[in-house]
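To assess whether the prediction recovers the assembly geometry, we first specified each molecular entity separately, as shown.
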Amino acid sequence: MSEDGHDTSYVKVWMVLVGLLIVSIVGPMFEIQAVTLVTAFGVAVVKAFLVAKYFMHLTVQPRFVVYIVCGCLAMMVVFWAGVAPDVYKWEGVNWKKEHVIQEPAGDSHSDLLGDPADRHDRPRT
Amino acid sequence: MRPIANTRSAAGIPTGRLAVWWVVGSEIVIFGGLLVAYIMYRLSHPEWAGHAANTNVVAGGLNTLILLSSSLSAVLAHQAAERGDGPRAARLLGLTILGALGFLTVKSIEWTMEIQHGFTITANSFWSFYYTAAGIHGLHVIAGAIIMAIVARDAREGRELHRVELIGIYWHFVDLVWIFLFPLLYIAK
Amino acid sequence: MIAGADDQIERDSMSEAVAATAHDDHHEVGFWGKYIFSTDHKMIAKQYLFTGMAMALIGGFFAYCFRMQLAFPGMEVPAYGVVSASEYNSLVTNHGTIMIFWVAMPVLIAAFGNFLIPLMIGADDMVFPKINRLSFQIFLLSAIVLLGSFFVEGGAFGGAWTSYPPLSAKAEFSLTPLGSTLWLVAVALEFVAFLLGGINFITTAMNARAPGMRPFDVPAVVWMIVIASVIFMLSVGPLIAGAIMLLFDQVLGTGFYDPGKGGDPILWQHMFWFFGHPEVYVVLLPALGITAEIIAVFSRKSLFGFRLIIYSSIGIGVLSFVVWAHHQFIAGIDPRMANIFTITTLLISVPVAEMIFLYIGTLYGGSIKLTTPMLWALAFIAEFLIGGVTGIFLGDSAADIYFHDSYFVLAHFHYTFFPIAIIAVFAGVTFWFPKMFGRMMNETLGKIHFWGTVIPFNCIFLPLFVLGLGGQHRRIYNYQHFPDLAGAEFQDLRIFATMAMLVMLAFQAVFLFNFFASLRKGKAAGRNPWRSNTLEWTTESPPPHGNFGGDFPEVYRGPYEYSVPGREDDYWPQNIPG
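The predicted structure of the complete assembly is given in tokenized form:
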């Protein structure tokens, strides 16, 4: 909604966003997987919601605009659901995809690049 | 000459804004397809965490900050435009363009360093995704900055003020994409 | 902000009449302004129509070349020469690409959408005329890029219209280093053109409706073009991303689809068919919309179950997103997913069948007039039914393992696409020709052309079902190399199909003659030659710039009020009060 005369409210939202940004950078530094997931991706969802609600004014558009956006997101969930069983499954009852582990590129590892010795199956996780 | 059709509003929302929301919808599925593919590959390649450790979190975080701030100036420009204050809207849009330029500058320094260290687009699939996703996003930043310059030029003379809101919605969307790209590419290890 | 929008709306409707008079003033434009760089939706529609027709002739010529090769292997094809194996692949690939992306899409969605949407909803133009023009220009560029790929080193892309990697990703496999890249660029440009056009259509139909026009006063064809545009917009995103990734695989040597580099070629198949299957419904829905209009007009009856038809179209739209993997049953996808996709595929035949029932219900008890457009519309229903029914076998993953990539599949999808892209287009062109050009087409020539197209069409593709069941695989250059398939009983069917195709192509000359002769000498049409209700028939033929001469219609009723008891006329235009 038009927050006429409320410059500060936009600035406040911005301050919250910057605070969340700091959380999302600091959180993963603990290197605990659960904390990383929450701080990186949970916070990203919160940030996205704040931007959509306060900056894009999504919630005060006619209701169908929300449906358009949610419909597009739902399509991506459908796409993911249909593709995931094939693309990120690497082994099944009687099959297994041969798989290449890629060593990190870069100066320190450049000796490994192109070395056939680095081709082996992905270890079970 | 604007057709009458453009001035009608049977759905209860100005035509320009309606169209921008559809554009945002179509962009969601484009970036969505790319990111869904990336996430699936990422989950099936645990070793990519090692590659992601080579990204520059400081540069990525700085760019997030720049984009968030430019979103703030874009929404303030919209507010000014709603009050009919064209020159102020144009100044704030100018600030947003500055943000876009800052983003691109940081990005190009970052990429130059990475390429110099051998992390090119063909180094491995993580870096392929890194450059593809950030590259497509960067093209949107460039396009947004150009359109914003045109809108700001008109707004300074008080013309087409409703466009300030439209480019703002697009710009926030570009910001939103980066909000997701940042954790996906930089900090998930 | 909402309050501000309402003010703006009110102000706009008040100034509409004033602006309308101003709109008619700026008329004097030269040849270039009028025909090439026009922003008028009717001119852009004609540009799309003529480009699509030209591409259809090119695609038809390709079909002629490879069908001749199949019937008479190694023979010099008149007007082409000997078809080599790699040329055969290029011709087949580009026949498919052209017919779907450069004929069905531009004619059904872009040409009819551009022409009909503003006229049928009582507006003077699309809401963004310049974006509309840009959309056509990008489309034209894409067509030029695609045709240009035939003249580069290595020739045009020959890896099938689905462009699966690794065949499409590496020049060492495709042998067309530049051709495959140009193919990809052309398709991507075409998507951009239709995204721009599609958003324009959706926005126009949502926002620019005439005063008094409620959602169910909008004619079925506009509804369906809009639903199709939404389906297109939602489905094409992953493929655009995937096309960029494939482009990088081709040009830069990345490994998105290369298992050796940690990629997965199945991902492309998913991305392609996540778009590719909804695409079938993107072109089917406008075709169904065109036939709905025609059947209602020539039955002189209200469209039976109009609302149900719209709900079914929306149902088709939703379901069309969850059926795509039935194209990949033998690609090694997860068998549990194959079960799910079998179920959804069989489900989607329900709303389609329902719509065909509703169309037949419209015919029942009507006073049917068998004009040329009506013949085409009826043929569409009959022929599409065969395509739909054979699809049920293919949607079943167990049967599909045997049918996959055989001529049974090929005949099936030609029985869906030919009615959509050719029969429905002829229905639409013959029906709206009077409105587009202000003259009537010749009925006798039209009927000769109709029978000369529909009978040979069945003679081409019915034998191909038989060949497919006999085990004939698709995309084979010369069946004489396969002892099981080289027998005379098979070869005779191939020759029969090719002969039927020659007859069908020859009869298209009748249409072209009829089209251009009627353009010059046809009987003047008047405003409403078919005595139809929808708004486009209330203005002059052809409509002037601005469509309604500044006097915009108001809408009082739905589009299908035919043979209303107690009225003198058997039709009741939407803009007549009372």
